[in-house]
Amino acid sequence: MAEHELDFVNENDMSMLTDLYELTMCASYFDHRRKEPATFDLFIRRMPPNRAYFVFAGLEQALMFLEKIKFTKEHINYLRKHGFKENFLDYLVKFKFTGEVWAVPEGTIVFPNEPLMRVTAPIIEAQIAESFLLNTVNVQTTIASKASRVVNVAKGKSIVEFGLRRTHGTDAGMKAARCSYIAGCTGTSNVLAGIKYGIPVFGTMAHSFILFFSREIESFRAFAKSFPKTSTFLIDTFDDIKGAKKAAVVAKELEKKGFRLNSVRLDSGDLVEISKKVRTLLDEKGLSYVKIFASGDLDEYRVEELLQKGARIDAFGVGTRMSTSADRPYVDVIYKLSEKMDKNGRFVPAMKLSEGKITFPGRKQVFRAVDGSGKFVKDIVGLHNEKVEGEPLLVRVMEKGEIVYELPTLEKIRETALENLSKLPDEYKRLENAPSYPVEHSPRLKKMVSELTRDLRKVERLD
Asked: Is the confidence at residue 7, as pLDDT, over 90?
């Protein structure tokens, strides 16, 4: 392994992006010849404060991982140094995921304690998958859910993701761009995300660019000369109103050359009052087409406040607080055993009874009920072969270790997210004091929980 390298994880190393206990458990399963299939549910246990829904994201990367996972010679040598037995290492050399996966499509609005992915595979294969699946679903669902809140309060005004420099590493920076776009953002400042994902990229200029020139207006003219069709001028380096006046001068110069200034950017101060003054100034100069773009420590609460107070802002650059989901930078995503195969080759339900962490047994499906206008009414978690009111959300995405689901384009995932958000009643989109969306359990699932709880308590007493 190279001693010095960038921190991008090589695709071939993804199998080792795991917690050690996943591999130690698998080694013990192997040692005791426990290779029978089991089913795990991936779900989010609880809703963070001031949230009422999640936007599920990360499925594409999860499936690609499962299909391509392998262990290299380097990995085997490393594990050998940590005491793993040769027969288990020989097994890993030939490892391939062979299981079945059902999942909710990316972009779907989901709620706590609903299975988002259901993995059925030989126990070792299902166990090895855990850490990566939790990692990628956690970061992407967290950011997509946060970004959707910002987009919603903007009421159709453009939101550009600006968070690369503050995200928690390079991979998080890429995922923040991807997931904010899924949630409805117009684009990102992240150029690599533009290359890899095809997301529209946007950029303006920094205060350092202004300061590098001897006069503010010279910096505007220089930038306009380089980018006459797409210029945005940062006008608050010294004085926002004086900056706006200089921007108007250069905008008129651009007009004479057949071009139009795209926008001016505000990054500090009282954005409500400044934006009103700048809008008036630009309109008086015949520059009503020039947009006002705002940035600077924004999130959904700040964007909502600005618009409620009448700020004349056309678009927002939202960075740190959205791209790190600053008020809640994670979700309680869980991966738990829900059934296992017994000695007779039959799947039997499994559940955890830990206080405050009870899980639901069996192979399950999520059914979504809607009203006459297509708005979401409630979800019902039932058994996979149960007839329940509503549309089933989980679809088969992998079979025998191969992806059998046509992976949608990023644009299609974005359409799914925006369509789902349009069907979610407005009360669940409130930033504060939103009600809990009703998630019910079917009669057969309730019966299974009751009977299994009784049986497990009986065994516990015998022990």
From this structure: no
